[in-house]
Amino acid sequence: MRVTLLGTGDTTGTPTVGCECDTCQRARTLAVERTRFSVHVENERTGESLLVDFSPDFRHQFLREDVPLPDAGIITHIHFDHLDGLGNAFRLFDDLPVYAADEVDPETGKSVAETVSQDYHYLQALTVEPVVSLEPVSICGLEVTFVPVDHPPLLCYGLAIEDPETGAKCSLTGDTSYAVPERSRAVLAEPDLLLADAIVPAHCCSRHPIGGRHETSDGVPRTFGTKHMTREGALELAADLGADQTRLVHVAHYYPADEAFEEPLAIDGEQYEL
Ligand SMILES: [Zn+2]
Ligand SMILES: [Zn+2]
Ligand SMILES: [Zn+2]
User: Fold this and answer.
1) Distance between CA atoms of 215 and 30, rounded to whole angstroms?
2) Nearest residue to 171 (alpha-carbon basis) of 144, 150, 148
3) Measured in angstroms, how far is the CA atom of residue 204 from the centroid of ligand 1?
4) What separation in Å is there between the alpha carbon of 257 and the centre of ligand 2?
5) Taking the CB of residue 246, how many other CB atoms lie within 10 A of it?
6) Ligand 2 centroid to residue 127 C-alpha, Å
């Protein structure tokens, strides 16, 4: 399994358009970027690939990285930075199955699968495949399990992606607070590679209008606001899951410049062979 991090940024990306902060300046100097979230997973046994989330930066990401167009896609949730690149599928694909959860979201009255099929009804190539969470489904020869995470007010899913032949496993937390349910943690556990939402370091919580949540016994918030993990929360989750290797993703430009490019924060273009 070859995993390529196409987009490792939050919803504004790094550098952020029009931003002159030290972190965005440093990214320009280092010639690195964190575009909006997307992960490419290639099954080297079958030659098929799977795209997790369709970034608004889809075109740029595929021109920049030497990876094949996907044979199937997954949408974790309906936020702009994960879904709105799907329009790029127009004329690029003859037939693209897109997998998304079938559970009705009380916030929208629709499942992620229904939102995707309604928003992109004009794309003939698209077939939306509704998925039941916590039940493995076979995609591109890989065993994929959607797991509910905590990203209020919307339903959102993390993913466990396993090669049934080699046992290689990549887990993604999805956009989530630290309050990942136990049943989901059990499915995500013991990955070779964990991609964990770590939008900001915990010290940034003082800048959030409602601060942080899910504090450690030392008072360190593991959740930024209500929707995302802090760096500290993501690292604790990684330890809890027993991840072999962890990359922090969905990273915002609010990390101070001297912390923003430290390990284990990911940048675009990283590739892992599992
Ligand atoms: Zn900035
Ligand atoms: Zn989100
Ligand atoms: Zn997001």
Assistant:
1) 34
2) 144
3) 14
4) 24
5) 22
6) 23
Measure 258 CA to ligand 1 centroid, in angstroms: 13
Amino acid identity at 235: L
**143 Cα–ligand 2 center, Å:** 24
16: phi then psi, degrees, rounded to nearest 5: -85, 140
Distance 166 CA to ligand 3 centre (A): 30
DSSP state of 103: S
- Cα(165) to centroid(ligand 2), Å: 32
Q: 8: CA distance to ligand 1 center in Å? A: 15
Q: Is the dihedral of CA 47, 52, 54, 58 positive or negative?
A: negative
Neighbouring residues of 224: CB distance < 8 A, sequence distance ≥ 6: 199, 200, 202, 204, 205, 208, 212, 230
42 C-alpha vs ligand 3 centroid, how far in Å? 22
Q: The pTM is what?
A: 0.98
Q: How far apart (Å, rounded) are the C-alpha atoms in residues 198 and 266?
A: 10
pLDDT by residue, tens only, the chain of 274 residues: 999 999 999 999 999 999 999 999 999 999 999 999 999 999 999 999 999 999 999 999 999 999 999 999 999 999 999 999 999 999 999 999 999 999 999 999 999 999 999 999 999 999 999 999 999 999 999 999 999 999 999 999 999 999 999 999 999 999 999 999 999 999 999 999 999 999 999 999 999 999 999 999 999 999 999 999 999 999 999 999 999 999 999 999 999 999 999 999 999 999 999 9
Length, in residues, of the chain: 274
Nearest Cα neighbor of 158 from 192, 196, 199 is 196
Q: How far is the CA of 74 from the centre of ligand 3 (A)?
A: 14
